[in-house]
Amino acid sequence: MRLHLKAGEKVFINGAVLSFEQKTSVKLLNDASFLLEAYVMQLEETITPLRQLYFYIQNALIDPKSELDSLQRALLMLASIRKAVENTDILDGLELVEVKINKRRYFDALRTLKKLFDVELSIWCEDNEIDQANADVAPFARAVGEN
Fold first, then answer.
1. pLDDT at 132
2. 118 and 135 Cβ atoms separated by less than 8 Å
3. How far apart are CA 118 and CA 134, in angstroms?
4. Three-class SS of residue 102?
5. CA proximity to 50, closest of 71, 72, 80
6. Of the N and C termini of the chain, which has fewer Cβ atoms inside 10 Å?
7. Cα separation of 133 and 117, whole Å?
8. Are strands 24-27 and 10-13 parallel, antiparallel or unpaired?
């Protein structure tokens, strides 16, 4: 796996935070848990249930020492969301997220969740009679090459 990083961009690898002073490429030669800075959600951005779930899974990926605790929280949150939501897109997505968590494919689970953010926002805006275009949701960074 080859990672291309901009100068100053951070990458989290097996609990360590790396930053390079220059644009660089890093080649991972074995299995490692990693997350690019563009995929990192800050605590203040966890304003919806799916974003909170994302945050727990992200923490399991970033910090191997707290992996089990983060996963327990994630699975509790996932179960709570399932009980509260009727939208089939979200329920199907959550099923896929759970499968990926159980296979320890945390990054794939994050990608799946990220795709559900717009669905969740549209439901939230509909329920609260808010214009989705003007909804106050923290911006979320996009990774290079993502559609």
1. 46
2. no
3. 13
4. helix
5. 80
6. C
7. 14
8. unpaired
DSSP 3-state of 132: helix
- Say how far apart CA 121 and CA 132 lie, in whole Å: 7
Place of tokens 């990220």: 114
What is the Cα–Cα distance from 17 to 77, expressed in whole angstroms? Answer: 27
pTM of the model: 0.79
The sign of the dihedral angle between the CA atoms of 144, 93, 89, 138 is negative
Tell me which residue has tokens 């759970």.
98
What backbone torsions phi and psi does residue 29 show, to the nearest 5 degrees? -95, -10
| pLDDT tens by residue, 35-67 | 888 889 999 999 999 999 999 999 999 988 899
Contact 35, 62 (CB under 8 A): yes
Which amino acid is it at 18? L
C-alpha to C-alpha distance for 29 and 110, rounded to whole angstroms: 23
